[in-house]
Amino acid sequence: MALEPKTFMRLMEKRIGFTKEDKDILKLHANWGKEIAGEMADYFYAHLSRDSETNTILNNTAGRIHRLRETFIQWFHEMFTGMDDWGDTYAERRWRIGIVHVRIGISPQHVVPAMATVVHEVGKRIKTDGKEEALRDALSRICMIDLAFIEQAYIEVSSTAVLKETGWTEGLFKRLVTTGVGTL
Ligand code: HEM
Q1: Which domains does the chain have, with CATH numbers?
Q2: pLDDT in tens, 150-166
Q3: Which of 20, 107, 108, 159 is paired with 55 by a 20 to 30 Å CA distance?
Q4: In sequence order, which residues have a C-beta less than 8 Å from that of residue 21 and are 6 or more positions away?
Protein backbone atom coordinates (compact mmCIF):
# COMPACT_ATOMS: atom_id res chain seq x y z
CA MET A 1 0.00 0.00 0.00
CA ALA A 2 3.06 2.27 -0.04
CA LEU A 3 2.13 5.51 -1.74
CA GLU A 4 4.41 6.93 -4.41
CA PRO A 5 4.00 10.74 -4.03
CA LYS A 6 4.82 11.62 -7.64
CA THR A 7 2.41 8.98 -9.02
CA PHE A 8 -0.29 10.18 -6.62
CA MET A 9 0.34 13.78 -7.70
CA ARG A 10 -0.12 12.92 -11.39
CA LEU A 11 -3.28 10.98 -10.60
CA MET A 12 -4.77 13.84 -8.57
CA GLU A 13 -3.89 16.38 -11.28
CA LYS A 14 -5.81 14.25 -13.74
CA ARG A 15 -8.78 13.56 -11.50
CA ILE A 16 -9.11 17.12 -10.24
CA GLY A 17 -8.40 18.61 -13.67
CA PHE A 18 -5.41 20.73 -12.68
CA THR A 19 -4.15 21.97 -16.04
CA LYS A 20 -1.20 23.82 -17.57
CA GLU A 21 -3.44 26.92 -17.72
CA ASP A 22 -4.00 26.63 -13.96
CA LYS A 23 -0.24 26.43 -13.39
CA ASP A 24 0.39 29.43 -15.65
CA ILE A 25 -2.12 31.65 -13.88
CA LEU A 26 -0.81 30.63 -10.45
CA LYS A 27 2.79 31.43 -11.44
CA LEU A 28 1.66 34.76 -12.83
CA HIS A 29 0.19 35.64 -9.44
CA ALA A 30 3.02 34.25 -7.30
CA ASN A 31 3.90 37.71 -5.91
CA TRP A 32 0.28 38.43 -5.09
CA GLY A 33 0.15 35.04 -3.33
CA LYS A 34 3.14 36.02 -1.24
CA GLU A 35 1.56 39.38 -0.39
CA ILE A 36 -1.69 37.88 0.90
CA ALA A 37 -0.17 34.79 2.61
CA GLY A 38 0.11 36.49 6.02
CA GLU A 39 -3.54 37.56 5.96
CA MET A 40 -4.62 34.04 4.93
CA ALA A 41 -2.54 32.62 7.80
CA ASP A 42 -4.43 34.91 10.21
CA TYR A 43 -7.81 33.62 8.97
CA PHE A 44 -6.54 30.06 9.13
CA TYR A 45 -5.35 30.27 12.74
CA ALA A 46 -8.40 32.28 13.83
CA HIS A 47 -10.48 29.39 12.46
CA LEU A 48 -8.40 26.77 14.32
CA SER A 49 -8.48 28.78 17.56
CA ARG A 50 -12.31 28.83 17.60
CA ASP A 51 -12.47 25.04 17.99
CA SER A 52 -11.48 23.75 21.43
CA GLU A 53 -9.77 20.59 20.08
CA THR A 54 -7.63 22.34 17.47
CA ASN A 55 -6.97 25.22 19.84
CA THR A 56 -5.53 22.75 22.39
CA ILE A 57 -3.28 21.23 19.70
CA LEU A 58 -2.10 24.69 18.60
CA ASN A 59 -1.08 25.65 22.11
CA ASN A 60 0.35 22.27 23.03
CA THR A 61 4.01 23.24 22.79
CA ALA A 62 5.77 26.57 23.20
CA GLY A 63 6.34 28.49 19.99
CA ARG A 64 4.08 26.17 17.96
CA ILE A 65 1.71 28.90 16.71
CA HIS A 66 4.62 31.04 15.63
CA ARG A 67 6.23 28.10 13.80
CA LEU A 68 2.93 27.17 12.19
CA ARG A 69 2.34 30.67 10.92
CA GLU A 70 5.68 30.56 9.12
CA THR A 71 5.06 27.09 7.66
CA PHE A 72 1.56 28.13 6.53
CA ILE A 73 2.93 31.18 4.70
CA GLN A 74 5.50 29.04 2.96
CA TRP A 75 2.93 26.34 2.10
CA PHE A 76 0.54 28.94 0.72
CA HIS A 77 3.18 30.54 -1.49
CA GLU A 78 4.33 27.14 -2.80
CA MET A 79 0.87 26.59 -4.28
CA PHE A 80 1.60 29.53 -6.61
CA THR A 81 5.20 28.70 -7.52
CA GLY A 82 4.71 24.93 -7.72
CA MET A 83 8.28 24.58 -6.33
CA ASP A 84 9.59 22.42 -9.20
CA ASP A 85 6.64 23.04 -11.51
CA TRP A 86 4.41 20.83 -9.33
CA GLY A 87 6.85 17.98 -9.88
CA ASP A 88 8.46 15.37 -7.63
CA THR A 89 9.69 17.88 -5.00
CA TYR A 90 6.20 19.36 -4.71
CA ALA A 91 4.65 15.90 -4.38
CA GLU A 92 7.21 14.77 -1.77
CA ARG A 93 6.63 17.96 0.24
CA ARG A 94 2.84 17.51 0.22
CA TRP A 95 3.18 13.87 1.25
CA ARG A 96 5.46 14.91 4.12
CA ILE A 97 2.86 17.47 5.32
CA GLY A 98 0.27 14.66 5.37
CA ILE A 99 2.54 12.41 7.44
CA VAL A 100 3.25 15.24 9.94
CA HIS A 101 -0.50 15.67 10.57
CA VAL A 102 -1.09 11.94 11.01
CA ARG A 103 1.79 11.79 13.53
CA ILE A 104 0.34 14.65 15.56
CA GLY A 105 -3.10 12.99 15.45
CA ILE A 106 -4.95 15.72 13.56
CA SER A 107 -7.85 13.99 11.89
CA PRO A 108 -9.68 14.64 8.58
CA GLN A 109 -12.62 16.20 10.47
CA HIS A 110 -10.24 19.08 11.35
CA VAL A 111 -8.30 19.29 8.10
CA VAL A 112 -11.25 19.50 5.70
CA PRO A 113 -12.93 22.53 7.39
CA ALA A 114 -9.50 24.19 7.68
CA MET A 115 -8.93 23.85 3.94
CA ALA A 116 -12.49 25.07 3.27
CA THR A 117 -11.58 28.24 5.20
CA VAL A 118 -8.53 28.80 3.00
CA VAL A 119 -10.57 28.33 -0.20
CA HIS A 120 -13.32 30.62 1.10
CA GLU A 121 -11.03 33.43 2.29
CA VAL A 122 -8.83 33.40 -0.79
CA GLY A 123 -11.97 33.49 -2.94
CA LYS A 124 -13.15 36.63 -1.13
CA ARG A 125 -9.77 38.28 -1.57
CA ILE A 126 -9.72 37.42 -5.29
CA LYS A 127 -13.03 39.24 -5.63
CA THR A 128 -11.91 42.28 -3.62
CA ASP A 129 -8.71 42.58 -5.67
CA GLY A 130 -10.62 42.21 -8.95
CA LYS A 131 -8.66 39.12 -10.00
CA GLU A 132 -10.01 36.74 -12.62
CA GLU A 133 -12.27 33.76 -11.85
CA ALA A 134 -9.69 31.47 -13.45
CA LEU A 135 -7.29 32.23 -10.58
CA ARG A 136 -9.91 31.19 -8.02
CA ASP A 137 -10.55 27.96 -9.93
CA ALA A 138 -6.83 27.17 -10.18
CA LEU A 139 -6.30 27.82 -6.47
CA SER A 140 -9.30 25.70 -5.51
CA ARG A 141 -7.91 22.82 -7.56
CA ILE A 142 -4.42 22.95 -6.07
CA CYS A 143 -5.94 23.23 -2.56
CA MET A 144 -7.93 20.05 -3.28
CA ILE A 145 -4.77 18.26 -4.43
CA ASP A 146 -2.97 19.29 -1.24
CA LEU A 147 -5.97 18.18 0.80
CA ALA A 148 -6.03 14.80 -0.96
CA PHE A 149 -2.41 14.24 0.11
CA ILE A 150 -3.21 14.86 3.78
CA GLU A 151 -6.35 12.69 3.66
CA GLN A 152 -4.60 9.85 1.85
CA ALA A 153 -1.81 9.87 4.43
CA TYR A 154 -4.33 8.68 7.06
CA ILE A 155 -5.34 5.67 5.00
CA GLU A 156 -1.78 4.79 4.04
CA VAL A 157 -0.33 5.15 7.53
CA SER A 158 -3.14 3.29 9.31
CA SER A 159 -3.36 0.42 6.82
CA THR A 160 0.43 0.03 6.70
CA ALA A 161 0.52 -0.10 10.52
CA VAL A 162 -2.24 -2.74 10.65
CA LEU A 163 -0.56 -4.90 7.97
CA LYS A 164 2.79 -4.66 9.75
CA GLU A 165 1.36 -5.47 13.16
CA THR A 166 -0.85 -8.37 12.07
CA GLY A 167 1.02 -9.84 9.10
CA TRP A 168 -2.26 -9.81 7.12
CA THR A 169 -2.20 -9.56 3.35
CA GLU A 170 -3.59 -6.48 1.64
CA GLY A 171 -6.39 -8.60 0.17
CA LEU A 172 -7.46 -9.92 3.58
CA PHE A 173 -7.36 -6.42 5.06
CA LYS A 174 -9.55 -5.00 2.29
CA ARG A 175 -12.01 -7.87 2.68
CA LEU A 176 -12.23 -7.28 6.44
CA VAL A 177 -12.86 -3.57 5.88
CA THR A 178 -15.63 -4.13 3.35
CA THR A 179 -17.35 -6.80 5.45
CA GLY A 180 -16.90 -4.65 8.57
CA VAL A 181 -18.69 -1.77 6.85
CA GLY A 182 -21.79 -3.98 6.67
CA THR A 183 -22.07 -3.94 10.47
CA LEU A 184 -22.06 -0.14 10.75
C1 HEM B 1 -5.55 23.15 5.21
C2 HEM B 1 -5.07 22.27 6.04
C3 HEM B 1 -3.68 22.37 6.60
C4 HEM B 1 -2.52 22.77 6.00
C5 HEM B 1 -2.32 23.18 4.56
C6 HEM B 1 -1.47 22.69 6.99
C7 HEM B 1 -0.14 23.00 6.76
C8 HEM B 1 0.89 22.62 7.59
C9 HEM B 1 2.30 22.62 7.27
C10 HEM B 1 2.88 23.08 5.95
C11 HEM B 1 2.98 22.14 8.35
C12 HEM B 1 4.48 21.94 8.47
C13 HEM B 1 4.81 20.49 8.18
C14 HEM B 1 6.28 20.13 8.39
O15 HEM B 1 6.82 20.39 9.46
O16 HEM B 1 6.87 19.55 7.46
C17 HEM B 1 2.00 21.85 9.37
C18 HEM B 1 2.30 21.36 10.61
C19 HEM B 1 1.39 21.32 11.64
N20 HEM B 1 0.02 21.55 11.54
FE21 HEM B 1 -0.99 21.91 9.87
N22 HEM B 1 -2.02 22.30 8.18
C23 HEM B 1 -3.36 22.10 7.98
C24 HEM B 1 -4.28 21.72 8.93
C25 HEM B 1 -4.01 21.67 10.28
C26 HEM B 1 -4.99 21.53 11.33
C27 HEM B 1 -6.50 21.39 11.10
C28 HEM B 1 -4.31 21.54 12.50
C29 HEM B 1 -4.95 21.42 13.85
C30 HEM B 1 -4.57 22.08 14.90
C31 HEM B 1 -2.89 21.68 12.20
C32 HEM B 1 -1.85 21.72 13.10
C33 HEM B 1 -0.52 21.51 12.79
C34 HEM B 1 0.53 21.24 13.78
C35 HEM B 1 0.33 21.13 15.27
C36 HEM B 1 1.73 21.11 13.05
C37 HEM B 1 3.13 20.82 13.60
C38 HEM B 1 3.73 22.13 14.11
C39 HEM B 1 5.04 21.95 14.83
O40 HEM B 1 4.99 21.72 16.04
O41 HEM B 1 6.07 22.05 14.16
N42 HEM B 1 -2.75 21.76 10.84
N43 HEM B 1 0.75 22.17 8.90
Answers
A1: 5-181 (1.10.490.10)
A2: 999 999 988 898 999 99
A3: 159
A4: 134, 138
